[in-house]
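@channel sequence for tomorrow's demo:
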Amino acid sequence: MSPKFTHLLPLLWLTACTAQSSPKPQLDAGIDLPRPQPETVPSARKKLKRIDGKRFAQRLATGLAIPEHQLCQELGRFDCVQQAHMISMGGVEPYLKTIYTPLEVAPISAPLAFERTALAACNYRVEKELAGEIASLFGLKADTRLSSAERKTVAQHLFQGLMGRAMGDQELSKLEQYYQKLEQNSSENLDARWTTLSCFAIATSVETLFY
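structure tokens (generated this afternoon):
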């Protein structure tokens, strides 16, 4: 090294020592910001069981007062619960598919199968009631709008029929808010749309699908 740079040796040695002893900066370290935690309600039971298709169909048929074979038909031919989505909904098929026990892990198609069946059943009940082809359950009429008291009666029927319990004030408020939201978008077939979608929401809730 040239003599004119020898005075820099102590500085270089100190810099090297500092670099070795100093902790390396964490380039990927982010700022730990507080995150809002969702409100959770503790379950009254330690272990919940997922409802199977057969039990689900019975609940829909009883709650909506329609025959099980009319709940949902794929392509108008295949029963959703007993044929089209039987395995996805927790059923077995030992003869044709050698499935002797329900699947331990629900397949990715399971939520769609339950939702498909629920929406078809709710839509069937509302359409047939408006057409006068089945006995009235919700009091729907094609030429008149439901009053606030009548909507409450519809909601009570849905909760009692599909969940087996009375409806809470907060749940009624949510359904009323949903009615007003639908009304802002379009008033056409308002009662039918609100009843169908409210039925669908209750039928596919966690409380209905697990026990």
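heads up for whoever presents: The longest helix spans residues 110-130.
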